[in-house]
Amino acid sequence: MADDLLSQLKTMTTVVADTGDLEAIRRFEPTDATTNPSLILQAAQQQARRARLAEIARHATDIDDALDAVAVEIGSEVSALIPGYVSTEVSARLSFDTDATLARARSLIERYGRHGVGPERILIKVAATWEGIRAARILEREGIHTNLTLLFSFAQARACADAGVTLVSPFVGRILDWHKAQDPDADFSGDHDPGVQSVRRIYEHFKGHGYDTIVMGASFRNAGEIVALAGCDRLTISPKLLEELAGTTGGLERRLTPLDAETRAPEPQDEAEFRWEMNEDAMATEKLAEGIRKFMADQRKLEALLGELRRE
What positions constitute the catalytic site (predicted)? Predict the structure, then answer.
């Protein structure tokens, strides 16, 4: 009998669980796991966690302290189940504040240390704004690994690679969403998917110019997008799509392969060039802003939950 698609994918791509659900992580045995405010909120709403969350909330100095304590506690539990990285996000509220991002990232690493989880196991997730990328450059020089998220454009990817970030997360499905809204009758299947095309371009640029930054496709809408990116460094996949891949048999072809590196990397972008290229890319500008708003919407829900628990 042919191997299932998930087993085959794991031979060519590092599979990352896009969830804070411990049972899903146990079942699918990913190498890494990534979280965001939406996934932390889902985990925090589980009834079995309520008493512990209430304890955290009551002992926290303020809501920000409680938020980070919850994220690190869940991240520490996840780290015990996987051999690789756990991604933990700096508040989306700080997406345009380099100094505040730096302070929050360092605080998260210290919290993980108190849970016995070293910095080599953590990726600090930061939105790929100009300010976030500047913060990531500094953190990487301090030995703190970063995951630049909400990445929709080639300009963002280039800036991240120039900054030496550990990993970038291009959002495949959200790119597709935007293009489908603009042209609902177009064929965006398979290789025509603009999100897939974006990841391939980034992957080929990084490998072709010798950048060490890991490319991790994220935000998938269907298994076909994952199949089209087989061979990418990493893919972060929801439990629903992991289940579908695990239940599907057939051959899986490697679609992305590293290229020989060029002798000379391109010139780094300056801030003006970055902002101009983002301004010219309506999809990236709109989806980055929307993504920050959505993460903040779920963070506010989590803040409200923790505030309620503090008062109990």
Answer: 125 (schiff-base intermediate with substrate)
pLDDT in tens, 218-241: 999 999 999 999 999 999 999 999
* Average pLDDT of the chain, as a whole number: 93
Give the closest residue to 269 by CA, choosing from 279, 277, 257: 277
Contact assessment for residue 175 and residue 195, using Cβ atoms and an 8 Å cutoff: yes
Phi, psi of 186 (to 5 degrees): -75, 155
From the list 125, 207, 287, 294, the catalytic residue is 125
- Whether this prediction's pTM lies above 0.85 is answered by yes
Which H or E element spans position 307?
helix 282-311
Mean pLDDT confidence for 22-41: 86
Q: Which uninterrupted H or E stretch holds 212?
A: none
Rounded Cα gap, residues 148 and 165, in angstroms: 7
Contacts of 210 (CB under 8 A, 6+ apart): 261, 262, 265
| Contact (Cβ atoms closer than 8 angstroms) between residue 218 and residue 236 | yes
Separation CA 189–CA 224 (nearest Å): 8
267, 252 contact by CB (below 8 A):
no
Q: What are the b/e assignments for 262-287, b being 16+ CB within 10 Å?
A: eeebeeebeeeebeebbeebebbeeb
Is 180 a catalytic site residue?
no
Question: Where does the pLDDT of residue 117 fall: very low under 50, low under 70, confident under 90, or very high at 90 and above?
Answer: very high
**173-200 residues labelled b (16+ CB within 10 A) or e (exposed):** bbbbbbbeeeeeeeebeeeebbbbbbbb
Q: Domain limits of the chain?
A: 5-311
Q: What 3-state DSSP class applies to 33?
A: strand
85, 93 contact by CB (below 8 A) = no
Class of domain 5-311: alpha beta
